[in-house]
């Protein structure tokens, strides 16, 4: 690290010029990168996806989309009875006006289940072709317009469905990636201004801007090699903002500390690279490990988030270890003005706090573990799936239409019907059998091309309730089992079938992913901390913290204790199927950042001759404000992400934000100091047999003198 610092300082103008070119390239290419991102949650090779693709190829629509529900309500005093032909023509008009859709209604099924109990409202299912573009528009306007034109005056038309409810009925998309990033940057600048109290606060923001745009540049070639999920753009912008600022903040703070100790600017940069730069490298690799573990899952969109997400710490480490020292080596002392805050001593508050925790380490550890244990217990009640229709919208035309249908006795399962692909000669018997399955409201075989093409037919099965989570898909399993008894049954598609496939493909492979992440992280941290026990503690605490975070999400989103008050969104009833795995992948590395920051400094203080308790007090006294500020910046970035469109993005953002808060408070303020103090000399063992293959020096505890009083003054390093 010293040689690297000397190299950067010798060529600092070239380094700044290089990143200037990257900045320009990022501005020019970021738009092209985002245009190439896709929406695709398919699961190749899984039964539901295979059937969905067969349906789409044969019928041109449906399979892996939930249908629009189009409702026609006649004026007061009129009923659907006597107007069946008019309503049927109106629904058919939508099929003729909008390309690549299939209309399923009373006209082509002959079933009165497509009207409400009061006989004033009829509805149709409109299956459409999946569009992988994130800029796709809802088809509500053309569908509604086509139906309205075919109806006499006085009739009202409404369109609802999972997608319409989730969007709130519009395509505005929230403030957008740029708006959210600027919102996060403003919050970060406020924190940085407090930390540095000088113009130096702008340096981490500059580094973050370059890092984000560099990530978009690196992401562009990846979009040509594979499909990359549109969610990656939000992660690159907001998580990239937080991570790059955190790393630069660590580096600049250490540079300031060395300057305040009397070192000249050149040597201060070199020492900051040796100490803080070393921690940044290990932190970045830890974050990347958690994300790259996603590539072992047989799910393309999760793999793309693993590849794309791993570019975030890579770009952040690169910019922090090149651009930051290059700028500090040139104009650092000049921009560190007015210098109100100094770093020549540990924080009084954090030293006192840590001393109090060390004195009462058993109480602190027990209290923290009890709090986490309660949340972990809540986690076991998690439901994996999709947000229920009740939480997607509480007003608007889509909500009103759904309420009209529900009051009329239409089951909410109409939002998530199953499509069973069968041979045409088996369609009737299959429909009759599936209608008898427990939890099924009805099974229909549409006549004509809407349900029959080239010797294949689709049986549309409507469950009693929407199949949106792991506890409501049992009916789908029963339908799949019943359909398998027929020689003409070739598979079941739909939202419920897709969730069963996802649970099998992702959570069935989760033990492998967890093992890979835990082992790689443990080995990396053994090398970083030169200890066998500290890395084991770090990995176990991270897993407990992640389970507690998911427990908090169950309370906040699934059970609605907070989601309605903050976002105006009712209890979702489930946590969206892909979000827990994403939270695990990101938070495992991000929260480990703070572990690396703190324990690296504690190890440095111990190696300088302090006792274990002194090293803990001094180490956290030096890093407490830094870690708190870094966590706050990352939390503000996630808060900005939560302003994005859709319940799913808000759920992901709040999960990440809550995880960072749990980690920076309960774990880092209580558990880390109390447990390291409790472990004592056992923290510092690294025998020769373990050190040799890792190419580090073995470690044994040194003799410790008694710990000083409860509020120790910072001491110069010994030895």
TrEMBL record:
SUPFAM superfamilies reported for this sequence: Multidrug efflux transporter AcrB transmembrane domain
Region Disordered, residue ranges: 697-719
Cell location: Cell membrane
Compositionally biased spans, kind Pro residues: 706-719
Transmembrane feature ranges: 182-200, 205-224, 230-253, 279-301, 307-331, 362-382, 506-526, 538-559, 565-590, 626-646, 652-671
Native source organism of the sequence: Streptomyces fildesensis
Keywords associated with the record: Cell membrane, Membrane, Transmembrane, Transmembrane helix
UniProt KW Transmembrane keyword: yes
Topology of this chain in the membrane: Multi-pass membrane protein
InterPro entries assigned to the protein according to its UniProt record, in alphabetical order: MMPL_dom, Mycobact_MmpL, SSD
Primary localization: membrane
Pfam families: MMPL
PROSITE patterns attached to this UniProt entry: SSD (PS50156)
Protein's name in the database: MMPL family transporter
Domain SSD: 196-330
């Amino acid at each position: 690290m010293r040689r690297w610092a000397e190299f950067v300082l010798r060529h600092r103008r070239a380094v700044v010029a290089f990143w200037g070119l990257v900045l320009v390239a990022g501005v020019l290419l970021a738009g092209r990168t985002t245009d190439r991102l896709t929406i695709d949650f398919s699961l190749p090779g899984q039964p539901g996806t295979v059937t969905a693709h067969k349906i789409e190829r044969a019928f041109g629509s449906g399979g892996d989309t939930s249908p629009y529900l189009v409702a026609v309500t006649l004026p007061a005093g009129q009923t659907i009875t006597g107007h069946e032909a008019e309503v049927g023509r109106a629904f058919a008009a939508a099929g003729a006006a909008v390309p690549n859709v299939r209309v399923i209604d009373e006209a082509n099924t002959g079933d009165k289940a497509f009207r409400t109990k009061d006989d004033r409202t009829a509805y149709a299912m409109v299956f459409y072709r999946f569009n992988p573009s994130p800029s796709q528009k809802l088809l509500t306007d053309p569908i509604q317009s086509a139906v309205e034109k075919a109806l006499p005056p006085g009739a009202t038309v409404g369109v609802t469905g999972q997608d319409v409810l989730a969007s709130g009925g519009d395509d505005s998309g929230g403030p957008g990636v740029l708006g959210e990033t600027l919102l996060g940057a403003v919050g970060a600048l406020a924190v940085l201004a407090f930390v540095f109290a000088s113009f130096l606060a702008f340096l981490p923001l500059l580094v973050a801007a370059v890092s984000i745009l560099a990530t978009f540049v690196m992401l562009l070639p990846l979009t040509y090699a594979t499909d990359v999920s549109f969610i990656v753009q939000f992660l690159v912008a907001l998580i990239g903002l937080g991570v790059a600022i955190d790393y630069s903040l660590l580096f600049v703070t250490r540079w300031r500390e060395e300057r305040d100790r009397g070192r000249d600017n050149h040597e201060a940069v070199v020492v900051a690279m040796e100490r803080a730069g070393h921690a940044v490298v290990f932190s970045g690799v830890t974050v990347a490990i958690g994300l790259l573990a996603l590539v072992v899952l047989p799910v393309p969109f999760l793999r793309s988030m693993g590849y794309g997400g791993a570019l975030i710490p890579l770009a952040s480490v690169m910019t922090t270890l090149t651009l930051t020292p290059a700028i500090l080596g040139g104009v650092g002392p000049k921009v560190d003005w007015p210098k109100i805050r100094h770093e020549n001593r540990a924080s009084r508050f954090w030293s006192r706090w840590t001393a109090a925790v060390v004195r009462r380490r058993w109480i602190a550890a027990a209290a923290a573990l009890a709090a986490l244990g309660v949340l972990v217990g809540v986690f076991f009640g998690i439901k994996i799936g999709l947000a229920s229709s009740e939480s997607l919208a509480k007003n608007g035309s889509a909500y009103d239409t759904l309420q009209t249908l529900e009051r009329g006795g239409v089951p909410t399962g109409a939002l998530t019907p199953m499509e069973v692909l069968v041979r045409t000669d088996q369609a009737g018997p299959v429909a009759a059998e599936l209608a008898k399955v427990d939890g099924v409201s009805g099974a229909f075989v549409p006549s004509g091309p809407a349900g029959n093409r080239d010797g294949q037919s689709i049986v549309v099965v409507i469950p009693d309730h929407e199949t949106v989570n792991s506890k409501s898909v049992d009916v789908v399993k029963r339908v799949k089992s019943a359909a398998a008894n027929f020689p003409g049954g070739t598979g079941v598609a739909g939202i419920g079938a897709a969730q069963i496939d996802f649970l099998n493909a992702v959570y069935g492979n989760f033990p492998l992913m967890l093992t890979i992440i835990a082992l790689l992280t443990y080995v990396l941290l053994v090398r970083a901390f030169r200890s066998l026990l500290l890395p084991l503690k770090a990995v176990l605490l991270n897993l407990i913290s992640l389970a507690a975070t998911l427990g908090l999400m169950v309370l906040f989103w699934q059970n609605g204790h907070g989601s309605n008050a903050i976002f105006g969104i009712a209890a979702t009833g489930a946590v969206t199927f892909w979000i827990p795995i994403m939270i695990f992948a990101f938070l495992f590395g991000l929260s480990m950042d703070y572990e690396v920051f703190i324990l690296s400094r504690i190890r440095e203080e111990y190696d300088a001759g302090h006792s274990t308790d002194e090293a803990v007090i001094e180490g956290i006294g030096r890093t407490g404000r830094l870690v708190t500020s870094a966590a706050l910046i990352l939390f503000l970035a996630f808060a900005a992400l939560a302003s994005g469109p859709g319940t799913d993005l808000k759920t992901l953002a709040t999960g990440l934000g809550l995880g960072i808060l749990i980690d920076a408070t309960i774990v880092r303020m209580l558990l880390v100091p109390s447990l390291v103090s409790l472990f004592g000399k056992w923290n510092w063992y690294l025998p020769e047999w373990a050190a040799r293959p890792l190419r580090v020096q073995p470690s044994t505890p040194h003799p410790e003198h008694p710990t000083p009083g409860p509020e120790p003054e910072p001491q110069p390093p010994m030895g």
